[in-house]
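Anyone else keep sequences and structure tokens together like this?

Example one:
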Amino acid sequence: MDGIISLIPILLLIVVAVWTKDTFLSLVVGVLSAFLVLAKGNPIGAFNSFQDALYGVLTDDGSQWVFILIALFGALIALMGDSGGVLGFSGLAKKILKTRKQTLIGTWILGIIIFVDDYLNCLAVGAATRDLCDQHKISREMLAFIVNSTGVTVCAVIPFSTWGAFMGTQMVESGVAEGTTSFGAYLSTMPFILYGWLAVIAVPLFCLGVIPLFGAMKKAEERALTTGEVFSPEAKAALVELPDEEKASEGKPRRAINFILPIALVVFFTIWKEDIVIGLFAALLLCLVMYLPQRLFSFVGFFKSVMKGIVDMTPVIIIIILAYVFMEATTQLGLIDMVIEVALKSLHPSLLPLIVFIVIGLLSFGTGSFWGLAAIAFPIVIPVASALDVNLFLASGALISAVCFGGHICLYSDTVILTAASTQTTPVDYFRTSVPLVMVPFAVAALGFLVLGFVM
């Protein structure tokens, strides 16, 4: 009974999100219901628990790192937009991508190229391609789907990424491959991260019509093609002011180099120092050194643009704070431990990869957690797999695929929230239109893990 009750906040959040199409309201309802369940209906106890969780999120080192990252990205995107760098890059892309299908595939390729970090991918690719996609009447929902399908999923299948570093460490600590490095362990697991590979491959199949669009995404694309309106009514209403890069960079030369070099520096420092925040600080300094001699900004105007970018990211930070508080509540409800324990009890060895993928995937979707969930699940799943004589790399691939699925589709995961921010749609719009498409690689991956479970 307790397990069923702990699902109520997640179900309420999703129902309210789909019904109202409002991300903030749905998160508030989810948070309130979660703490009321924890406090057994006592509103004072619920409020006190909420305060404690909020304080914990705001003072957590990991959360603060994310808030700083988002603020710095907001500043960098504003500078590149106001300097004409974004439009310069779009102008360069226009010379190469001349048709609608070319633009869709080009956006997909750019997402694959920026593979080092899912946050960098989500924010940079969306900002770089918005203008070009608008000219070809590509809906913001479709753009968001492409961006996030080449964000967390690409990072999950490439060992030279933040995902590779984190998951490889978890594998070694859990005893997946004793005596090898985290990189070596992850390299051996790569072929079995089925969902990541399939989600990336599915994008061009949808873009080229090999797999026809259906459901809400088909309607969104029809709206953009027939009316030229790339925004949904909800996304348009959520924007305080529609983007106007043309006005911000009026009278300034549009040089693609003013976009490419700062992003390249972020990528370089992310690989070298393994910390994207250092890369963002370096990129902002580079912008100062590049833009002032070109007379794109005055010294004061430069920092006004920085502050504007940070302020623009404030709603995103607030939504992420609420999402983290909700994750904390679901953790306190004991949902993760309860579900994993029940799912893995008395399990046939051949079914373990499939069960791990589905159960952990649904948990990741429901809780909005992927790295945290992986850190919890690895020490549980790997000993079970070892005891059942299941291939440990296959079991690891199923687990990484599962949390990759959660990051790809959960409407209150940080990657979805950041993708929505960069493409200027809403997380609910992304969720509503992308769920039907995402279920295609999910179903194929589930079948793949079922077959591999028996074959291996």
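And example two:
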Amino acid sequence: MNRMQQEESTAPPEIPEPPAYTLWQLVLYFLRLGTLGFGGPVALAGYMHRDLVERRRWISDGDYKEGIALAQLAPGPMAAQLAIYLGYVHYRVLGATLIGLAFVLPAFLMVLALGWAYVRFGGLAWMQSVFYGVGAAVIGIIAISAYKLTTRSVGKDKLLWAIYVVLAAVTIVTESEVAWLFLAAGVLAWFWRAPPQWLRQSGANALAAMQVPAASGLASTLDWPLLTQIGVFFAKAGAFVFGSGLAIVPFLYGGVVTEYQWLNERQFVDAVAVAMITPGPVVITVGFIGYLVAGLPGACVAALATFLPCYLFTVLPAPYFKKYGKLPGILAFVDGVTAAAIGAISGAVFVLAKRSIVDAPTLLLALGTVALLLKFKKLPEPVIITSAALIGLAVYPVLHH
């Protein structure tokens, strides 16, 4: 046995095979995916596997799975982080940077155009009619996403169910997302499943963790210029939100509507609807929100501040992830954080439904969306959104004549 180990240790290192594609081919692929890729983070991750691993064989299945694991471990939008990691695989930091820009830019330009139209024509009946229908359909889409994520990731694990229920309840009661509870859920799962040896010897870390909410509360009372305030809030959103792109919805609601009162509830639901209408990552709704708050500079600052932490959390740990990503403690932490994120998404369904489901037609639209998505698993979400917009155009003027 010792001799075998010795031979393995002296074996020459594997020479990586050159990539079967150029960087620009990958950039063009992600530009196209960012322009045409509907369906949210899980669907986008599925397209990447189908196209890059199965069909074109540009990326190995192992590299893809490592990208998924890192995207779930690090905070930020999963689909964008997976894209950045796949760019890093063969072309390192330059690849990660160009792929991140290519994936996010098309959707960002679309939400800018929609933001301009919303501000310019928001008072017109047709705009209100469209969002009357779309807002209700979005509730159905988020409800199905929450259901799928819950069954897939929480399963029958009692600890994860406890975390899920607590976070869902907190989100419903506070109508916001408590960022430090995500980290606490990860630490709880880690300590429960794979307790570190130093756990009994040190209580200092727990004491430090208790100070986080107080420190964030202090920061929110400072009177900074608006763009700086937008930058800090959205950077916090990008740095503390785990899981799918929808996980950012309750966090944004707590800050944008409740704390800073930049938007009213109707405008916020419309912003989530815009994210559903456009392809690419759901998180791009931050560009629309930034535009409503402070025009083009606000949109640019909000998008950059949200995606910069996600980029750094992917590129910086990438070289070390192969080595440490499968440690039991890290896997347990990821499970805990994921359960917390899904609980918050489920709670957000109730919070947002109170704003969007205002009468019998909107209730029927939301329930109809749920029924269609359950019956037709591959029904494209843009088809639902377009149909809901047409129904809104027909029904809203009659009810609000």
